[in-house]
Design brief:
With about 400 residues, the chain is an alpha+beta fold. The protein has 11 helices and 14 strands. The longest helix is centred in the middle third of the chain and has 69 residues.
Amino acid sequence: MLNGDISYSQAIHIYQHAFDAISSPVTILDNGKKILWCNKAMVELIGQPLANITGAPICQLLDPDGTHAENCVFHLGTEPTLFTWADRWFTITGESLPDDSGNVAGYVHIMNDITEQRKTEDEMKKQHDQLLQADKMISLGILASGMAHEINNPNNTIMLNASVLQKAWNSIIPILNETSREKGDLVVGGLKYEKMKEKMPQLFSGILESSKKIQRIVNDLKYFSGKDLISIKNQVDMESVVKSAISLTGNMIQKSTRHFKAVYEKDLPNVMGNFQNLEQVIINLVQNACQALDNHWNGIFITVTYDRSNREIVVAVKDEGKGIPDKDLKYIAEPFFTTKRSSGGTGLGLYMSSKIISDHGGTIRFSSTPGQGTTVEIRLPALVTGGLY
């Protein structure tokens, strides 16, 4: 009898019910980390009958990686330990249990579920990171706008002067030809005239192409900063957009692949948008596809179709190139992320493309398999009236 009123078995029964009423898993371990007893919450956590749990090493049940290691999280100390199990977070605290002689006979461990607390903390951290990212984007936008302005003015001068100099060179070629015939070995700019005559068109072409590349980067920076958004939107035929983009990138396509094909579904409905902005998106995607190819035998394929069930125009650009590793795929539409930094990539092209499509109420999705290629799918809301489509 206990206190003259309760028997030992009754006391055990009361204690069992009391511990089972505790929502946190409670476990009593011996010095070898074997389970002597646990409450209902622990049984439910492990998902096995109490008979299977009793006598089993707790590390074997909840921490298999620590079974044969010194750092099993269910240590014999009493310092709180962080532990995860089945997508839940716990802190484990322990107290020693003395025997009749005062020696440590085992430990009682309590697992406090802090999953909701962790979720709240993670969400707060995510929101904090998003605020920092937004602030960084604003700062970058201001910087990009200033850079675009500072770069654009001298670059316009370069483009204009290069064209003037090219015309001037072409106009004096007859004079130089005559002088060369009269004087023989004519030297221009430290080179023989005949050699310089061959080289000058390449030099002018290189200057103009480089200047145009700078101009494209400046335009990307302007769009990134929001200073060059074209808000005027009209009904746009996406077949015409794609055909125009293909025409503008035709030289690059011819140099990159011998297998290029564009297919257009007949009688496509229009979309509401800006022709120039949408054209720039397709240009970016075609350029990326060309740069992804390993050889001329790899192909690029474009389709423009109408998804009637969702009332969307679908533009798909597929290449048979190198593909994008999984670790990079989730970042490719982020500003300034690029895998082509060494070859002049700015990391703004796909970000700009994603932003344009988003501004048009559409979606853009990237799928890729390394070694097989990449597919970019654009979906834009179709203008459907009168039940025609």
